[in-house]
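Lab notebook, bench 4. The sequencing result for the construct came back, and we need a structural model before the next group meeting so we can plan mutations. Quick request posted to the team channel:

Model the 3D structure of this chain.
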Amino acid sequence: FLVLGILIGIIVAAIQYIVNIISNAIVHITQVTSNVDAVIIVALITGAVSILGVLLSSIVAKILEYRQNTKRYLYEKREMPYSEFIGMVYKLQQRVKNKNGYSNEEMMEDIVKFSQKLTLWGSSRVIRKWLKFREISQAPNNNPTDNLFILEDIIFEIRRDMGQKKGGLKKGDLLAFFVNDIRDYLPKNSRKERER
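Done. Here's the predicted structure in token form:
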């Protein structure tokens, strides 16, 4: 974002410089207009406006292209750690069902790997949700259901980062992939909304 700020500052300075040149040119043209034909004046003004329009549109296009390239780059970089996180969630789910196969050591290794990649590539929203999840899951008297709903919040934020909208999904919808009776753990207001 620092580069974007510098780029915008340069663009603003360039626009100010161009406007200054054009205003000076207009002052000069008005002094000369007493001796020049009106058709030539109209042609000069039209040309100046056209050049300014082309310059502004190319500057705006470059800014938009830069933003799009930055988004695309971040999508590519975030895809792997986010996919690994979803894989870790599915491994946890299998661990609960099978009572084996995914040891605490493997889980801690996956958590450390995810945290490392998240530090560099994760969005601030996903990082905040992840930190909240870690804080609550390490509390001595935590409610496992709270952990599940925070885990779902992380998945919603990951989907948002990857360009997916929530689009009608509600609390518990993504957890239904892992927990068959998740509806029983939803707050009463949420259950009534789903029954409608």
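The first helix runs from residue 2 to 32.
Will bring this to the meeting.
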